[in-house]
Amino acid sequence: MPDLHSDALVFFGATGDLAYKKIFPALQALIKRGNLNAPVIGVAKDGWSLDQFKARAQDSLEKHGGLDKDAFAKLIGLLRYVGGDYNDPATFQALRKALDGAKRPAHYLAIPPVLFEMVVNHLADSECATDARVIVEKPFGHDLASAQELNRTLLRVFPESSIFRIDHYLGKKAVNNVVVFRFANSFMEPFWNRHYVDSVQITMAEEFGVQGRGAFYDQTGTIRDVVQNHLFQLMCNLAMEPPVRTDSETIRNEKVKVLKAIEPIDASNVVRGQFRGYRKEPGVKPDSNVETFAALRLEIDSWRWKGVPFYIRAGKTLPVTCTEVLARLRHPPSVIQPGSRSRNHLRFRIGPEMTIAVGTTVMAPDDAMAGQSVEMVASRHPRPEEMEAYERVLGDAMIGDQTLFAREDYVEEAWRIVDPLLNSASPVHEYEQGSWGPSEAVESVVPPGGWHNPASSDSEDYRVTEDN
């Protein structure tokens, strides 16, 4: 088989915040594992020297993850730098020279989406796009129309097989562990369907606010920022059918089928909220109607899931930082005191730790035939040697594995589902910081048995309760 590994990595936006916090640590980690031996060419503003670029890399590693002496020495030897304006053809001629005959470069666009078309066109004109890959950061548009236009821009120069749309959330081990747990365990299949599952809810809670990114967030909001990308990806991992093969196209086909089975969300199935004090954040409009919280209900009209509601909730300044899935099962036809038993459930904690828990009913200690709800919990914290998300996705892009990257049709289907909400005049309800969002979220968009509020961490005495 031919070697499909990229023989150079070019990253635009090399002096930016993303490169400083995430990309340099990921590059060092790739080198440390022996997964990166190609030149790394940074492209950014003019006026920097290669020595300044190397110093930036060192400072990044010292502050974000730690500097490994041997791996850093190799990284320094691989670094190149091209300074110039992205709208200047001379910048791309200099890049072509720096590529020094590389046959399969990977161009990573760690830049604002507004610059994608300009850079992609210059890559084509300078012949730097020939047999190359392009890696683009989310957001992939800000609605369906812009996503379609972005895809047209990319596809004019690169075939779909050479486009890698990064959603770093898919690089998280716990997110992919959901797929492994579902399809590597035979006991899951008999009950993971509409006959036994009553409802599924996904909560992505963040204890912090916009953290000085008010200007960005006020153009984005929770639905654009995490729902239609991160949480839809997690939902697809939960709801997809078993892939018949493990190649990237087969797996991505199954994910797209999930989205195709979902109707566009009606505003009546959504509650939007905004934390008190958001409008005073720097960069936020004083009359902003952007949501910092969203709770929504949708259904997947497939053979497996028809009639099972899926609930998604995400928000900032909530009581904890945690992402968790709770699937409640239907009540069995039992003669054991119905008013005293909770439903069985399956719980996945995606972060900060990784947990799989099963909620069961056992005999209560003080009553021979009454039920008591308990959990069987398997939980572990990430280990230092495990791959971080950006190391995983950049490494996969370099070898050409598209499994963890969004395909053109997936992106457009995700936007189709939420598009009616983006320009709707639905109200935004204020909520207190440190609460679980506006009261409307537990009055109008509420799972059977109520929302499950994740605890700050799992422990031996962790319990999930519900209103019967």
Overview of this structure, please?
It is built from 12 helices and 15 strands. The protein has helices at 17-32, 50-63, 69-78, 89-99, 116-125, 144-155, 173-183, 214-217, 221-239, 248-260, 389-399, 408-422; strands at 8-12, 40-44, 79-83, 105-109, 133-137, 163-166, 197-206, 270-275, 293-299, 309-316, 322-329, 345-351, 354-363, 371-380, 428-431. A 9-stranded mixed β-sheet has the order 14-13-12-11-7-10-9-8-15, covered by helices on one side. The protein has a 6-stranded parallel β-sheet with strand order 3-2-1-4-5-6, with helices on both faces.
Topology:
Elements: E1 8-12, H1 17-32, E2 40-44, H2 50-63, H3 69-78, E3 79-83, H4 89-99, E4 105-109, H5 116-125, E5 133-137, H6 144-155, E6 163-166, H7 173-183, E7 197-206, H8 214-217, H9 221-239, H10 248-260, E8 270-275, E9 293-299, E10 309-316, E11 322-329, E12 345-351, E13 354-363, E14 371-380, H11 389-399, H12 408-422, E15 428-431
Parallel strand pairs: 1-2, 1-4, 2-3, 4-5, 5-6, 7-10, 8-15
Antiparallel strand pairs: 7-11, 8-9, 9-10, 11-12, 12-13, 13-14
Helix pairs in contact: 1-2, 1-3, 1-11, 6-12, 9-10, 9-12, 10-12
